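Data card: per-record layout.
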Amino acid sequence: MKKTLFAIAVLTGLMVSAQSTWKADGAHSKVGFAITHLMISEVEGHFGEFDISATATDAFEEVEFTVEIKSTSVDTDNERRDNHLKSPDFFDAEKFPSISFKSTGYEKTGDKTFMLTGDLTMHGVTKPVTLEGKVNGIITDQRSNKLKAGLKLTGTVNRLEFGVGGDTPTLGDEVEMTINLEMAQQ
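The structure for this 186-residue chain is written out next.
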């Protein structure tokens, strides 16, 4: 009985230690968003500067994410709109230069899908959010001989709950997030 308990303890320790650090490849990742404009169209944008890291198993399970996004890097393909989004009317990027996310929970929902909960801090306000995740695939990179994982995270946040922009009929309250990641095992 003692040998069995010892074997279980060793195996559990090996499984826990199988976690490794992963980093987003900025050239092959995108932090995007979309919002309704005038209740008839959708405007898309993304953030060009971000640092995303995770700890996860080799199968990219039991994930914990840490995300830092530079709010000054917002890009909607329209300089005038981007400058307005950086202003105190929206992100107030000078006062709040970063948007952050720290995961607090992970639940596997399917063979390649999961739910990720965490705390999103934007415009000085922290609120819990839930993201749906999908592992698109995992390969061994031929150059580095390290694992790479492709992921897609999606979710919706209410911008008014974070004090981003005022209550206006020209913009939707809900912002859809789509984050496509290529993560490299370190």
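Known properties of this structure: Residues 2-17 form the longest helix (16 residues). The two ends are 38 Å apart (CA to CA).

See the next section for split statistics.
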